[in-house]
Amino acid sequence: MNQGAMLLVFLVFCGGMAAQWIAWRFKLPAIVLLFGLGLLLGPGLDVLHPSDLIGPLFHPIVSLAVALIVFEGGMALDFRQWREAGEGILRLTLIALPVNWVLGSAAAHYVGGLTWGPACLFGSIVVVTGPTVVLPLLRQAKLQPRVAAFLRWEAILNDPVGAILATLVLEILLMRPDEGTGAFVTGILPQVIISLVVSIGLGIAGGWGVKQLFVRDLMPEQLKMPLLLTLALALYALGSLFMDGAGLMAATVFGMALANMRVPGLNELQRMKESLVVLIVSLLFILLTADLHPVVLERLSWPIFALTCAVIFVVRPLGIYLATIGSALSWNDRIFLGWIAPRGIVAAAVAGVSGIRLSEAGFASAEFVMPAVFAVIAATMLLHGFSLTPLARRLHLTLSNVPALALVGASPWSRDLAEVMIRAGTPVTLVDTAARALVPARRAGVPVLHTEILSEAGAESLEELPADYLIAATPDAIYNGMVCAHLAPHFGRARVYQVSPGIRRLDQYRGLSRDARGKVLGQPEWNFTLLDTLFTDGWRFQALDVTAATFGAFSRPDGNRLVFVSIRPGAGFSIRSAEDAQEEAPAVGDILIAFVPPATAKAGSEAVTAG
Fold it and tell me: Residue limits of the Cation/H+ exchanger transmembrane domain (predicted)?
């Protein structure tokens, strides 16, 4: 491998992972960092030219990678979401798309100065909101499930539809004058219909075939993931033989079929696919932006800037407003959807190919299609990437603005813990399979969730739960471990805790390995039986304020005070665990949630009453 290829591998892989980590650490949109890194390495420093290094295989590789992204996105499209978001999804995919195409084409002609042919092509390209941008942003935001469903379905469904629309517009523009409307009716239109039918059929047939193999145990575990990826790429290739864009439709429908046919054993595979897609998105954004030719940037002008502003501030909001007239969507929903519409990789890929073909056909201003689309992509990623979460919070479309806790197991002491944490300003939801056990908590004003957290219904409920941390606090240590292991990919392995299995030395615990359980809550000896006994003896949870006067006492261990949680107002909370490498020392202003004996609990209660 030559030095250029080695440099590409090093810069793209290491740079992509570094950008993802920085984005996670400082709560920034990763897409913006990846986009900026690509511009820096490519047009900026002139050190990375992917198409020159990879050659003619560059664009086919990009297309296959996009197929995997839309396939993984299709697996997130569950028809059960239609119960709450069906009307909005239909309006965004069936009405808003053609409305935005007409408005975008008019803006390109009257504002951007493009002739009608390239203007219509531009309008058809910018109707899509790319899943390569939307899905990573949704993973970072804590949107309400209904609003998240709107953006997810629009991005994933409109991507292949927009690609097919752009192909259709291009074919019509490239028709010879002597062909007339007959060629469209007898040639192009039937091809589009056949391509759509075939691509949808391929996707459904692929999903059905996978289900038969998995249900009948005809596929070994180690081949299931390679099979899904191979079929997604194969269906994309078959669909693309009929028409550009049909392959994306086939891959998307394949993912949707797997999600809605309830194919067993997909949960574990889906987690691996999500990780793979994160890597693919990182690579694609760096490669595509690094491959931008300086000529594209040189063609950026004031008319293109005005067109970009028109698309963002007029076309999209007006299109959403017109498409949702008479709907049940609230004004907050409509404002949010009218603003958030980042474009991604598919728009860039389609613009690059289509713009060149129009230029070669002699269309005036066709060379400005790619710069105009690039300007929209860059502007929407920057503006929408940084504004999505703040705007959602301002419009009250997020689940929670502060870190929250899911507490599994409604025992007397866990209910007491939930009540004290809620009074201290931390949202807590108490989860249990027994409705009767949740009655006292509900009467005390604690949010409750009656479900089996390991079931499919529990997984659906979890999506609507504003929780960032989880504590499994049932009497069954094995069940607690199963809950933590099952939900670790959702919360993060460092954010799932369970009551100690009841052994003083964790290195001697043989019940469950560390990978199959959560972090121990508090100290190893604080098992469920001990906590339940102490509660019966009068111990209660109490919120202790760390002040300058009490700082010294709270910094020292005390056998009459079992500290479980440390809350830092305005910054979240941390859960104490003996398995942490280093225990976080309390600071003045913190609130400690501690289990204290009867005398201390009574004194604290009297102080609260007197205050």
Answer: 17-393
Residue 495: DSSP 8-state: G
Tokens of 42: 């490519």
Helices (H), 340-411: 345-360, 369-394
Per residue, the 3-state secondary structure of 534-566, as one string, reads HHHCCCEEEEEECCCCCHHHHCCCCCCCEEEEE
Return the pLDDT at 608: 40
Within the chain, which residues score under 50 in pLDDT? 605-611
The residues that bridge with 545 in the sheet, in sequence order, are 591
Write down the pTM of the prediction. 0.75
Please give the Cα distance from 268 to 280 (Å, whole number).
Answer: 19
Q: Distance between CA atoms of 250 and 256, rounded to whole angstroms?
A: 10
Give residue 408's pLDDT: 93
C-alpha dist (Å) from residue 461 to 9, 114, 140: 41, 49, 19
DSSP β-bridge partners for residue 540:
596
CA dist 28 and 30 (Å) reads 6
What's residue 209's pLDDT?
A: 93
Q: Give the pLDDT confidence score for residue 197 in this predicted structure.
A: 87
Integer CA distances (angstroms), 31 to 14, 69, 343, 391, 552, in order = 15, 14, 11, 18, 45
